[in-house]
Amino acid sequence: MRTSQYLLSTLKETPSDAEVISHQLMLRAGMIRKLASGLYNWLPTGLRVLKKIENIVREEMNNAGAVEVSMPVVQPAELWQESGRWEQYGPELCRLTDRHNRPFVLGPTHEEVITHLVRYEVSSYKQLPLNLYQIQTKFRDEVRPRFGIMRGREFLMKDAYSFHIDKASLVETYGKMHAAYCAAFSRMGLDFRPVQADTGSIGGTGSHEFQVLADSGEDLIAFSTGSDYAANIEMAEALAPAGERPAPTAALTQVATPDVHTIDEVCAFLKVDAKQVAKTLLVLGEADEAGEQPVIALVLRGDHELNEVKAEKQPGVAKPLTFANDAQIQAAAGCDAGSIGPKGLSCRVIVDRSAAHLADFVCGANLNGHHLTGANWDRDIQGYEVADLRNVVEGDPSPCGQGTLLLKRGIEVGHIFQLGTKYSEAMKATVLNEEGKATIMEMGCYGIGVSRLVAAAIEQNNDAAGIIWPDAIAPFEVAIIPMNMHKSHRVAELAERYYAELKAAGVDVLFDDRKERPGVMFADMELIGIPHAIVIGERGIDNGVVEYKSRRDGSKLEVAIDAIVAELVARLGR
Amino acid sequence: MRTSQYLLSTLKETPSDAEVISHQLMLRAGMIRKLASGLYNWLPTGLRVLKKIENIVREEMNNAGAVEVSMPVVQPAELWQESGRWEQYGPELCRLTDRHNRPFVLGPTHEEVITHLVRYEVSSYKQLPLNLYQIQTKFRDEVRPRFGIMRGREFLMKDAYSFHIDKASLVETYGKMHAAYCAAFSRMGLDFRPVQADTGSIGGTGSHEFQVLADSGEDLIAFSTGSDYAANIEMAEALAPAGERPAPTAALTQVATPDVHTIDEVCAFLKVDAKQVAKTLLVLGEADEAGEQPVIALVLRGDHELNEVKAEKQPGVAKPLTFANDAQIQAAAGCDAGSIGPKGLSCRVIVDRSAAHLADFVCGANLNGHHLTGANWDRDIQGYEVADLRNVVEGDPSPCGQGTLLLKRGIEVGHIFQLGTKYSEAMKATVLNEEGKATIMEMGCYGIGVSRLVAAAIEQNNDAAGIIWPDAIAPFEVAIIPMNMHKSHRVAELAERYYAELKAAGVDVLFDDRKERPGVMFADMELIGIPHAIVIGERGIDNGVVEYKSRRDGSKLEVAIDAIVAELVARLGR
């Protein structure tokens, strides 16, 4: 490609409304332009990267035995009514009506459509296992689209759905998808980790996220220092502290704590460490037959954070997790939120494993402006349950039994899931098994955020000058930068020759044939992040050389005029 | 691909709701499945064809210097309000609102979005010409989706938009697109014609449709027997008959024609040829300042058909063309529709060139149950205009001046258009010209119905057994059909060997490894339309041969076991 025939659209200034580096660089490098909130046009440079990622994903899916199909963006509402998600899905599901006033949705995902398709196309266990995928436009009406295409409303996704006669077959295909994802992200040159993930409302244990590590990531991942263990913090288990709980030594005492509401204020006022304080939160339980929702107390150590996913999973806790309001707190504890404590509450009390290991601790007295000191479980407070309720913190022992936990941030770019029979049962997707009996199929689903990968790769690969693409997903592999070619016949001729030879060798080349100062050309090629460059100048030609420049390490190399094309082809592994 | 790991989904029965052969065969060959009216899932076999067509289009667009981008399916309504199409576009434009109640549309086309993009990205004539394209999902809420994906609601389209400093540059790119379209459709192995097309409400003369010839086509195309001239019948000019109009010989006579309403009835009752009858239609004119729409009479020869596109183009005729209702006819002509005639009408009268060449003709008397015979222009009827109002018929002289016209049916698969400044003017898309003066850009637009091409190719390439794909767009190029391989070790081994060798040679192979009778396998491979097959049997192996079979001509050839792969590679031009 010649820049003179291309839409380069690079920007010198960093757009003020872009918060994360990938969003800033995608705008500056002329990769995307905003059309409306969460809706982006892909300019040529961005689309080239997107297509390369798409092709790697396609190849690895094909290698793993998945078969490509394509389903519509617009889906009839009936299928969503049949699966139950018409009611369950919130306003992220964009609903519309056609000219005949029939209801449709813009597909945020395709479980319903694929289950509908497969229930009619597959009738026998002999046709299984079957793994169908598509790479297709999705729409989710995010309440707050942000970070450019990282969390857009319209995006490109690879979604695969597998169908099985039994769980063992599902587990086998799940393993193949796990391997295919690792292969695809490795080929893209990304630093990523498969991590155990929460399975949400569906239950079961089979789910992994694929996280690209980056400080700007929205997800927090716990790693073991002693093994391969990695899990989303939503999922990472916090073990009970080692050893026996210390015996009580202090007497239970009620102390006045005027104007003390937060843990920090309690610690400052009573001069204790937050680790010696128990904080109590009230949430709502599931409604009883009369529709009444009881209150449930959750108790954590003062320095720990509630893990809402874990809390929501406790039997009897209302889903989604709902905190008690002021009136409900007053009714249950007789005080304001800042003074609740586990002693004397008549509701259910669930204590986090670490909080349950405390002795002689401080907690609210269920009386405004008062706390208890020297509190002890069993001696002072009885009738509580113990569970894992908190987020792990760095230094916690790893639940795998080896090493301790480290925390890193990640960007979720893939998610694989053993769905089981959630959709196949609701939509009656059965096949005849070997005995000729109708059997509900087991299903798996496997997603990759194709457009999000573009941003994730940039978060991992950039410097002050711009993007640094891994070869496999670079918009162009080689930049030809001829200095003052519009004045030098020799420079122009050599540039044209390299352009022709590299194209013939199947290399993606951007030939910067603009009438621009060398500085402008260098800045643009570095901003766009082209991994390899040939710089052609009069002086070099005099010496029989051109300059090779690596974007990643900035190294420069003088190469003989006739050797540079072979050098590049070798570097690119052609 | 092995059929055992594939979703073949062939059907024995022809689905009853499929009218055209391509729709029937796409369902039977397991290419598509209906999800809802006008919405289709693409099964693996269909998607493979679609992707091959998409890739040919992409390559030819790139070869012609167009640059690929991608724009969202969901577009903000403001842009459509700015261009004026928010009001102009009918219910085919699917409108929706997001969770914040902001209005959007599902893009049926992207003129607004691309013009919006380019007005911000391009500021100087130096960046022009620029030709941007995408291959992307479109949605048009057709009132009556039909013929499967031929006229679906969601479909895949290649749409390109070019931007220019002046008309000359537009004409040059238009020519390149014309050539690129010819190259693409030729590579697909299609029998097609570029034909002159109506430019609709935009005006100008620069528009061509690309029509795949097929009896099931919705469009009628006029060809010259003496030149390359080809035009959509909407556009093909009907010349005035040669020579002078004959002089009047008969006297004007009013005759009673009781119960005579249609041209056929007039001819039968008066024993005249329809060619000697003038029929008169009343349409509405443009509203005057008071909002009143005058009636305008259109007069055609009894054997000719009104061309509504030509009628609509007459100055003063209301757009869209609207026929007068019974009350308006009564008020203007004093009779019912079956008795209108040009004599004595007080409204404007426009006479088709052929009708204006009649002498001694029959026409309505503007009196119920009466006609005039021996009518003559000028002598009996004055104050009329003459224009081209009719559809051409076979045998008409070609408007190019050479030969006569033939009519054929076609399927429109592409349309190129010199848009001019319709959008760039409405949306203020300007660049600075060489003198530094803001200049509105000239635009062209160029569409290809990518998904429709799949159906069009089938309409042209099928027989009683199924589809016959041209090599370049076949879902698979070669079928390996091993007879009873589950019983014969030698057959299985040879099949596996060919499968590996052909894949290594880059050939798309479908290896039918099912436990099925040979008859079932032959029927499926022919239905799917794979152009080349290798049939492997025990008896052949005994003689050192396998059978090559051509899907297109049905020819069979015994080929030495070690020669067949080279034979196929050669046939495929690898």
From TrEMBL, chains A, B:
SUPFAM superfamilies, per database record: Class II aaRS ABD-related, Class II aaRS and biotin synthetases, YbaK/ProRS associated domain
Single GO term (MF): ligase activity
Subcellular location: Cytoplasm
Occurrences of domain Aminoacyl-transfer RNA synthetases class-II family profile (ranges): 38-470
PROSITE patterns: AA_TRNA_LIGASE_II
The entry's keywords: Aminoacyl-tRNA synthetase, ATP-binding, Cytoplasm, Ligase, Nucleotide-binding, Protein biosynthesis
Reaction catalysis annotation: tRNA(Pro) + L-proline + ATP = L-prolyl-tRNA(Pro) + AMP + diphosphate
InterPro entries: aa-tRNA-synt_IIb, aa-tRNA-synth_II, aa-tRNA-synth_II/BPL/LPL, Anticodon-bd, Anticodon-bd_dom_sf, Pro-tRNA-ligase_IIa, Pro-tRNA-synth_IIa_bac-type, Pro-tRNA-Synthase_IIa_type1
The enzyme's E.C. designation: 6.1.1.15
A Pfam match: tRNA_edit
NCBIfam families: PRK09194.1, proS_fam_II
Quaternary organization: Homodimer.
Family the UniProt entry places it in: Belongs to the class-II aminoacyl-tRNA synthetase family. ProS type 1 subfamily.
Function of the protein: Catalyzes the attachment of proline to tRNA(Pro) in a two-step reaction: proline is first activated by ATP to form Pro-AMP and then transferred to the acceptor end of tRNA(Pro). As ProRS can inadvertently accommodate and process non-cognate amino acids such as alanine and cysteine, to avoid such errors it has two additional distinct editing activities against alanine. One activity is designated as 'pretransfer' editing and involves the tRNA(Pro)-independent hydrolysis of activated Ala-AMP.
Entry text on domains: Consists of three domains: the N-terminal catalytic domain, the editing domain and the C-terminal anticodon-binding domain.
Protein name: Proline--tRNA ligase
